[in-house]
Here is the input.
Amino acid sequence: MKKADFPVANVRHFFEPGPVMLISSALANERDIMTLGWHTVLEFSPSLIGCMISVGNHSHRLIKESRECVINLPTSGLLDTVVAIGNCSGEEIDKFAEFSLTPQPASNVSAPMIAECHASFECRLFEDALVDSLNFFVFEVVKAHVAPSPKKPETVHYCGDGEFMLSGKHVSRRSLFRPEML
Amino acid sequence: MKKADFPVANVRHFFEPGPVMLISSALANERDIMTLGWHTVLEFSPSLIGCMISVGNHSHRLIKESRECVINLPTSGLLDTVVAIGNCSGEEIDKFAEFSLTPQPASNVSAPMIAECHASFECRLFEDALVDSLNFFVFEVVKAHVAPSPKKPETVHYCGDGEFMLSGKHVSRRSLFRPEML
Here is the structure.
């Protein structure tokens, strides 16, 4: 999927609705992908995202030691791949090869982007105060790559118990906002 | 809306898809409501939720000092109320009165629940290490109240720029999960 530069201060547009993301990471000659449902926007500028990455994930060590990752936004066409990625371990397999995903070099981090995703956000570890106690990483998005179309990709949102919600219709309430709230 | 007890370890079902929430809080004779789009699940048990509550919100002080709040889940029928709540300040008005919302006593915290919401999660501050630097509060959900129906309420997800995504169809991939991942 061909992507274009996107302003990092606006990445809330993709994170805030709550979709499942795919985190890609690399360390020395290892690489991995994991699913991420536990994330939140924390700030516009610097562009900060908080993520809970359980220590039980193979990716945890790669991200903690490299202090970098790419957060990729998959759309609904990748749902079965997303589920498969979340149900196996990078200790045993190379998930790029296993699921025929294409690693693309990022600009600012050594972790690869996933070419098949709608968007890829290059991240550097910004704050690690809650990493040891809560597995909570705060990343700064240092570069964002977004496919120009579709404008409103169908995203997948995990509900637990093996069930997903797909993003539905978009409605605007822009006319009800105070200008400074937009 | 009549609600029933719900297991606190399962609240990810409501938080993880990413809906806009309404936080209610109280301190002495003040009370307030604010919209919350920046939140994440952090742990099943204890049941932990992380929230970015900007210091610019009137609720910030009430929550920081009382160390309690209720996080309420509004459904799409409340969308215009959600927008209105997010576009005014509790410094000037009592939002319960202004928007005809009904405060209900909670069981374990002094903050009121919002009767018109589908679910209400009573929270106590669990970890404040990132409150001063990033306005990031980690709460423990100590009691959860959820309306028995509808089973899949239509939720609202903020995209920025005054635009919302409504939750769409639900699809199950349960058969593709390893049992320990459910």
About this structure: The CA atoms of residues 131 and 137 of chain B lie 6 Å apart.
